[in-house]
Each structure stands twice: as structure tokens, then as C-alpha cells.
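Hi C.,

You asked whether I'd gotten around to modeling the 244-residue construct. I have! Everything is below, sequence then structure, no commentary in between.
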Amino acid sequence: MKLLSYLAVFLFATSFLQAQVKPETAQIPDSVFSKTVSINKDFLVYKPKNYTSEKTLPLMIFLHGMGERGSDILKAKKHGPSKEAESKKDFPFLLVVPQCLKDIKAGKGKGWWKPNDLELLLKHVKKNYKVDEKRIYLTGLSMGGFGSWAWAAKSPKHFAAVAPICGGGNPKAAKSLKKLPIWTFHGDKDNVVNIKKTQVIVDALKKAKGNIKFTIYPGVKHDSWTQTYANPELYTWFLSHSKK
């Protein structure tokens, strides 16, 4: 009986390891990196099992929070859809995870997501990976939620859908965002980023008759991302949207 038990554990562990998708570490070329302000040269790429050089795939870009800034790229996968990409055999997205540096490269100031940096990254990714440009999705948490709102507002044409989590947006951006499908999430007890930061942009988008969906988690503090990224409905929602 013990031998059978050990065998069962071994087979389960083996199948689990086989199911895991490990990210590859890619680099922005020097010619591009020299133009950036606060982004790590390294970024992570998760390729689905069915990734080939012929077939285009939907691209998901994930922006991490403030606690994952730095120059150790593996920190960037601590939270977010990386866990889903690593554990699901059928995760259907090409997932790209950049990292924000703690400090900006020139002058004074702390690192923050800069849409111009992310534009350069996206251009590089589209050039070097098989991306379905009608299905590019953006999501991020906390600082990455702010970054998602800001980048989407600057360049809504890039994205088929956006999902910012517990990060606020500028209500003045509602006009540029109103045609973009957005699903945003926030805990009503968030003691790091007040839910009002999301509510103001949601209200502005509703007033502008935007395509906005807002999920509020009752009693949840800052970590509204764990249950969001574990929810299969989020990924189904993303894939239901494609640019015309």
C-alpha cells in the first residue's frame, strides 16, 4: 500500500510540474532601452503550450504594484496572472510582464509606470512575437492599476480591453476611454488606495456613456487582486473583446 501511495504522489507531482509553464526572461535591446526612463531592461514572457512562429495569439500585458519594483525581474511575477499562466495548461494568452525600476534613470524621483516606456516595450513585443493586434489586453494592480488607467487613456487604440485593479484614474480621461471596454476592481475597505480613486473615473465614464464595469469587493482591503486574477470570468471577458 505504501508503495502505491508513493507512486500516486510521484505521478501527481510529475503531472503538476509538467503543467507548469515557466517564463522566459527577455530583454529590450539597448537601442530601445536607452530611450526609456523607469523600466527594467529585462521582462518576462509566458508562452502558451500551443505557441508557434506561425499562429498569432492574444497578448496580455500585466503591470505590477509598487512592492515589486526593482531590478530583479522575478519579483514582477509575485502577484497577478503569472500564477494562472504557470499553473494552467490551457492559459490562452501570450503574457508579458515588465518591471518598473525603483528610481528613474535620469534626474530625481522614484520609479513609476511611464506610458512612453510601455509604448516602446509594446512595439518591441509586437515586432518579435506572434501577437494578434486585435486582441491586446492590459491589466495591472495598485501602482499597476494607476499605470493601466494612464496608458489606456494615452493610447486606447492599442487595446481591446483593460482591467485595472485597485488603482485610480483621471476622470478627465473619460472622453478618450469611453469606447474601450473596461472592467475595474476595488475593495471598499482599501486602506492603501482609497476606493474613491476608482469611483471618480467610473462615474466620469458612466456620464460619458463609456463601456465600464465596476466590481466592488465588500470588506476587502488592498488585496483585491488575488480573487480577481483567480476568477476565470476575467479571462473569458478579455477574450470576448476584439478590436474592430
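If it helps when you're writing up: The domain at 22-239 is CATH 3.40.50.1820 (Rossmann fold).

Thanks,
B.
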